[in-house]
Amino acid sequence: MTIDFYKYQGTGNDFVIIDNRDLSISREDTALVKKLCDRKFGVGADGLILLQNKEGYDFEMVYFNSDGNESTMCGNGGRCITAFAAFLGVIKDSCIFLAIDGPHEAKIDNGDWVELKMMDVSTVEKGEDYYLLNTGSPHYVIFVEDIDDINVVENGQAIRYSKRFKKEGVNVNFVESTKTEIIVATYERGVEDETLSCGTGVVASAISYKLRHPEVKEVDIQTKGGNLKVRLDQSADGQFQNLWLCGKAQQVFQGQISL
Questions:
Q1: For the residues 131-145, what does the mean pLDDT come to?
Q2: CA-CA-CA-CA torsion for 221, 127, 134, 147, nearest 10 degrees?
Q3: Which of the residues are catalytic?
Q4: Topology of 2-113+249-258 in CATH?
Q5: CATH number assigned to the domain covering 124-247
Q6: d(Cα 225, Cα 148) in Å, to the nearest integer?
């Protein structure tokens, strides 16, 4: 079996993407997904994405974590598949695609700058020292004084595998505020490690930051993989709307793998 694949990255969050409009890859084949994402014996990636046809939409995004399991929404993955769809000629400079959490609008400019509209967020749980919310995937957000002092994997695992979250899992974001931006480091469930960037985590962190600074309408974010920007509004009833995740999404290479 020979598979044509493409490798994309969005601020260091990397994905194997496959044009599956012919449905040659089964979305039930978790072993194949896990093998392709393996960094020693496969192509290597944080996740795998299938681009498929979907009536009423430009395409469908099917996303898997590197553990082989189909997962919830991935923001950087959504930006990367938009760039891939433009590369294939499926779209031009805008699209509406279907993901597991519903429809998403996206725009692409200059070949690699992608703006992705995320789902509205109506509920945020605010604890004594955390925010918990779902931005397409569940996120736990903690503000810290110095992010360099945080062991992201050790502290992230302690929350992700705590009694409350052990069964379903949760992504954990550590956020440091500066005068001009926020710095975000994320431990991702499914990958079970720190990733260089997490799109839904960045959006969750921006929302949490806005709860502290209501006047903000745009948040600059620094991740270990690069810089992102989130635009957002909050309605009178507290709902977060017009959530746009913006940044570069680039093809790294393409190839074939025989299995």
A1: 98
A2: 30
A3: 74, 198
A4: Diaminopimelate Epimerase; Chain A, domain 1 (3.10.310)
A5: 3.10.310.10
A6: 15
